[in-house]
Amino acid sequence: MEPIRNAVHLCVDMQRIFAKGGIWETPWMERVLPVIVEIAERYAKRTVFTRFITPVTSEQRPGQWQKYYRRWERATRQRLAPDQLDLVPALARFAPPAEVIDKPAYSAFFQSDLDTFLREKRIETLVLTGAETDVCVLATALAAVDRGFRAVIVEDAICSSSDAGHDALMTMYRDRLQEQIEVVSAAHMLAVWIDDH
Fold first, then answer.
1. Residue 130 and residue 114 in contact, taking contact as beta carbons nearer than 8 Å
2. The pTM is what?
3. How many CA atoms lie within 13 A of 145 on its CB side?
4. Tell me: the pLDDT tens digits for 18-54?
């Protein structure tokens, strides 16, 4: 693996709503959290956390999102406890200096300030961690590829509420998208990341 340079650690949606007891609980988030904490601790100034922000009501989202939020009405902000959209406490302590960027949909790039932030910082590589492997991490990784970023997925620092979905996506990342998405362990990634800023 080539050295990682001009990079940020992009941690996707590690929020209370996805943690134990949350509406969208991702059961093995707890298993990957220590790995993500280690990365964020080492690269706090180069970490960007995203937060998936639900609408106040389903009518605030277009098209099929309205159907989705009618099903998940208790996830809308009119019903949800506000702290459920916060980062989990183990990661919240890193912001600041870490950045927090909110988004209304799966991709971290969609209707957010992420692309502008990365371009202004002249970032070339995104080291991806977070939740969920087969939804928001997937959407963010593909959007990063579309924009020409190098995408590095830390395999022991992503999680899903679906084991089948996680496994399928790990296969796709490795076998179908290997020229554009690199999959690596946290230990390997930390060994090759050159903090050049």
1. no
2. 0.95
3. 15
4. 999 999 999 889 999 999 999 999 999 999 999 999 9
